[in-house]
Design goal:
The protein is α/β, with parallel strands linked by helices. It is built from ten helices and nine strands. The protein has a seven-stranded mixed beta sheet with strand order 1-9-8-7-6-2-3, with helices on both faces.
């Protein structure tokens, strides 16, 4: 009899994974893998940060004493929520003090983006199902949002002629083409794949246009501390939107900046207008 799965076709190899497979198969002694952004030693071996080693030693020491392997809450350990909120929004963030941010642990940035997208599709108004992403953006953004049922549109971002940020093009698209109430994906820092970020003044102008058009920020922070070397500098855009009173989504990953690629550690934060809304969103 025919297999239940006879009609399933082999999917094309993921472009990034395919690069790594080709790298592993190459017999050259002079090869360097530029396909995946990951810490490496001079010899090309995976590099574990010293701070990660020390943290794991501390965890191991307390395992069975104050740290156990019990089930966590559905939305993640309370202390993890507080620490990650303060890291990205700042120690003195008013929204944290007012309990206006709800947070859930996720499978790295990819998982937080997917959860946010499905929440938007399930619970938000139809106009919110439109999301604008930069051209170009991280390849998985498009797939994640489309699979969740969102309508994906692009705004100009990289200007080849200057090898820089197309500030005017982005603002024009958001002003003239974006539907009021739509979402806009913003890379918090170290834009992937261009590495080009808006300056402080440009971030303010983007925020003002989004405020005027009632556009909702969905921010992706995968490189905090990685772009400038400062955790605070790389969080300035996030904190600007929070201080301007936006209700917004923040997808936070620790794969890149802490080298925790295989651990899949991430958080999804939703900043709400009030504490009651935050409780409802979390539920």
């Amino acid at each position: 009899t025919m297999s239940l799965f006879a009609g399933i076709q082999v999917a094309p190899v993921d472009p990034i994974l395919g690069t790594s497979l080709a790298f592993n198969a190459d017999t050259s002694q002079d090869k360097i893998n530029l396909g995946i952004g990951a810490y490496r030693t001079e010899g090309g071996k995976p590099f574990v940060l010293e701070c990660v080693k020390k943290a794991e030693e501390a965890v191991l020491k307390e395992t069975g004493e104050t740290i156990y392997k019990e089930y966590s809450t559905i939305d993640g350990p309370p202390r993890l929520k507080t620490l990650t909120q303060k890291l990205v929004f700042g120690e003195n963030c008013k929204a944290i003090a007012e309990n206006r941010i709800c947070s859930v642990q996720s499978l790295s940035g990819t998982g937080s983006l997917r959860v946010a997208a499905e929440f938007i599709k399930t619970h938000m108004k139809p106009e919110a199902h439109e999301i604008w992403v930069s051209d170009p953006t991280w390849g998985n953004h498009l797939t994640i949002f489309k699979k969740a049922g969102l309508t994906v549109k692009t705004y100009p971002y990289y200007k080849a002629s200057t090898r820089g940020f197309d500030f005017e093009g982005m603002l024009k698209a958001l002003k003239e083409e974006a539907t009021e109430g739509a979402h806009v994906l913003l890379h918090a820092c170290a834009h992937n794949p261009t590495g080009v970020d808006p300056d402080d003044g440009q971030w303010e102008a983007i925020a003002n246009v989004m405020k005027e058009k009632k556009l909702v920020p969905l921010m992706d922070s995968a490189y905090q501390g990685y772009a400038s070397g400062s955790l605070d500098q790389d969080a300035k855009a996030v904190r600007l939107f929070a201080e301007m009173g936006f209700e917004m989504y923040m997808c936070q990953s620790f794969a890149k900046n802490l080298g925790l690629y295989g651990e899949r550690i991430g958080m999804l934060h939703v900043l709400c207008k009030g504490e009651s809304e935050a409780k409802a969103v979390l539920s």
